[in-house]
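HUMAN:
Just now I want nothing more than another pair of eyes on a protein record. I would be glad if you read both lines and explained how they fit together. I have put the entry right below:
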Amino acid sequence: MSTSQHPIEQLLRPTHEMPVGLAYLAAAVLVAQSPGVLLGAIHTPALTGAVTLGLLLRGNQRLYHACRLMKYQYELHVLPEYKIRNTDIPISRIDLFLGMGFEWRARHTQRATDIDRLTFDYHKNRDQGWCYKAIRTLEKLLKAIPLADAITKITALQHWANPIAPLPYVEGNPATHAVGLWEGERPVIEKQTERVAHKFVVGTTRVGKTRLAEILITQDIHNDEVVIVFDPKGDPELLRRMWIEAKRAGRLHQFYCFHLGFPELSARYNPIGTFGRITEPASRIASQLPSEGNSAAFREFTWRYVNVMSKALTTLGKTITYETLLHYGADIDPLLREYLEYIFNTNAATLEKNGILNWKKAVDQIVDNDDLKQDRATKDRDRRTWAMGQLYKTSGISDQVASGLLKTFEYEKSFYDKLVASLFPLLEKLTSGPTAALLSPDYTDLDDPRPIFDWDEVIRTGGIVYVGLDALSDAEVSQAVGNSMFSDLTSRAGAIYKGGLTAGLPAELAAQVRKRQICIHADEFNELVGREFIPMANKAGGAGFQLTVYTQTLSDIKARFGNAAKAGQVVGNLGNLIMLRVKELETAKLLTDQLPQVEVNHLTTMSGATDDANPDSATDFTSSTQQRITTQRVPMISPGDLTRLPKGHAFALLGGRLYKLRIPQLKDEDELPADIALMCSDMAPKHRAANDLSWAQVPDVRWGAAA
């Protein structure tokens, strides 16, 4: 039965083909057993065989159409399970597998419209019939009889051929996907070359965003790409998946697990230790401070203060960390003293030219001279540091960093503390407890087994990095670290764009660097995004960066920026859109407003009767019945369709074409090493939800040697 040739498909009608097909089969049996009944005296063995074969073929054809229609109507209210093994995920450097589905066209809008409009709605009203209710009552009675319990299993069997099966509970509207099953599903793919346009995944909580991330990350790992995953909340299944796939791909030596919630097991990372320009550490820290209203002036002063300290530390050969900034920020005297010592030692010729042959003796003279008094602003400062500052002013040396440090030193301490009041609480949070050693690593401690990584190393060696930010425990620290990491990655993208992957490497090391795509997956994207993301999304594609970001609503991004225009700028740089179930209509319109309108057909029945007023006419009245097909333009999908999607289902707008897809759940039996299993078992109670898509129990093991 081809429905594509008819303007009205009528897929919700009763299956008239079933009795017809059975009649054909009965006729075939009758002809084969008693040919004379139908063929009379003209029957011959050859004719009997031909007629029987023809009846069988026609009967099977009609039964096939009936079964196909019954299966379609069954799938309108039953959500099929979709589970695959991780080894069944297709791996390709050409295509990216997203799930199973179909391209949504006008005929699917027609079918969805018919389901919502028709008064005889099979998939909703079937449970209202007397037969359905009688079977359910009978099942309750038979369950009390041990030997008759088997009958209830037959009547309750979930299969399209069982018209009396109980309707299962499903969340969302299964019919949204079932309208495409008439032609069948196929793998929905995205070309790998199109991923540089970046991808935006939207869906409310617990509908399958992270499960989709597992599918994409698995393929990236097996394609030998650089994989960086940001997980603010901490999903144990996501960590588990990354470790399992890294092991299967033979890339465990490239795997790093950074987790703020498990500093004793985590790899270490300095968010402000690597940079392309000296101003970047100050920008990463200042971006975490409030910038509205009067706070903007204090933020700018903090930026300048951190920038001066960063320049001084870099010149002195010290690593910039949160701890060093907090140490010298609270007491700038040691840093100024060390820096002035460096300046005096490297500018001996200038000092001699100005009559200062021994700067240390000159400083001692100022310190011992009781006639030289410190002013009110510096009276509580270290006198030797103050004396070195006085000598610097008369030395003839011009150094921008020294002048900046000295100016800060000469602020009245109480006034200075007010100016940087917002900086110290942030640094205290980042340097308190075990987290301090995680974010401010001691590069000289060779006894610490936890590895230290930076993005240059990860990108050049093909690393796999899981970043757990433990946002549920401390959202502010999570946001600060995540935003600094994004800033660092943006800086790396700029450096790669300008100089390539091997810039600054000797020839023998540069020859070992292989170009890979840098696949960044950012869950709960709204908690990480900042101003630095816009240039990354705009320009990082040329450096091989492929962004896949996940969030719940469009409003989350607007709230993060506090500006609808900037939020629109972020979303506008994400080329492809995958939308799962959403609850906010404005978010749903992000997809529906990009789709065209299509024409749907309506079958209208018109009937009427007209009396004949002529008494001499033999006709008393005339009647007529007509069926008319009218068309109407409607949206291809409506926002309401997106708010009723089942779990694990999504619409994907890829390259301007709309696809309806369902995301597989993965199942495997791989065992985890003790340290990763410990993380997962501890993360699980915080993350588990009763309506989760899937949950694999993680054994509760304790710390041991990692595999």
About this structure: The radius of gyration is 36 Å.
